[in-house]
Amino acid sequence: MTPTIETILSHRSIRKYTEQAIEPEQLDTIIQAGLAASSSSMLQVVSIIRVTTQDKRERLAELAGNQPYVASAAEFLVFCVDYHRHFTINNKVNTEFTELTLIGAVDCGIMAQNCLLAAESLGLGGVYIGGLRNSASEVDKLLELPKHCAVLFGLCLGYPAQDPQIKPRLPAKVIVHENSYQPLKLDDVHDYDKKMQDYYTNRSSNQKQSTWSVEVTNKLVGESRPHIRGYLNSKELAKR
């Protein structure tokens, strides 16, 4: 097994950090790894906002749903889908198509994962913060994002001050289909639920009695940020 694969397979979300700073050279390496990511049609529609002022960090922590590690991590990066630079180059650029928003979201995810893997390979840890979309318009205003540029998620980075267990994933036989979509075998999900129930019961923090099926279906039966469409539309994105 290569060091790269070992890094990938040992991923855990880190939410507690030491006070040690990330050296500028390390941060540059992390960013360069992100910039090396694949980009659809070489559009390069991602912008990263590095938030360094403590007052903004604390406000973002509140807006993300009171997640304190947004304020305490050594670095906090906000990933945005960004067609503003393209519109500035040529104001005939039409960003209203939903496909372009999907491209931006995919490119942001690929770039951010490159950044996180690079950070983890350097002994750092991190966690994604989708909670920024809880208050997307307020985050947008705080970061002074222009038209055609929208916030998607954040990424905390720092030196780990915790050593959480690796969270079990659905097995490949549930995720990977061959040639066509295969019906779900509930027995496979039940087996996975048993693993997750054991994980939830025995992990070092936030212990609970639950299963993956219960957790995700409870989440999916309710509303999921219904304001997001209006926010994206206000940025001239995903309008048609």
From TrEMBL:
Domain Nitroreductase, chain residue ranges per copy: 8-159
SUPFAM superfamilies (UniProt xref): FMN-dependent nitroreductase-like (SSF55469)
Gene3D superfamilies: NADH Oxidase
Key words, A-Z: Flavoprotein, FMN, NADP, Oxidoreductase
Keyword Ligase: no
CDD domains: NfsA-like
Any one Pfam family match given in the protein's UniProt record, by short name: Nitroreductase
InterPro entries: Flavin_OxRdtase_Frp (IPR016446), Nitroreductase (IPR029479), Nitroreductase-like (IPR000415)
Family stated for the protein in its record: Belongs to the flavin oxidoreductase frp family.
Annotated NCBIfam families: PRK10765.1 (NF008033)
PANTHER family per UniProt: OXYGEN-INSENSITIVE NADPH NITROREDUCTASE
Protein name: NADPH-dependent oxidoreductase
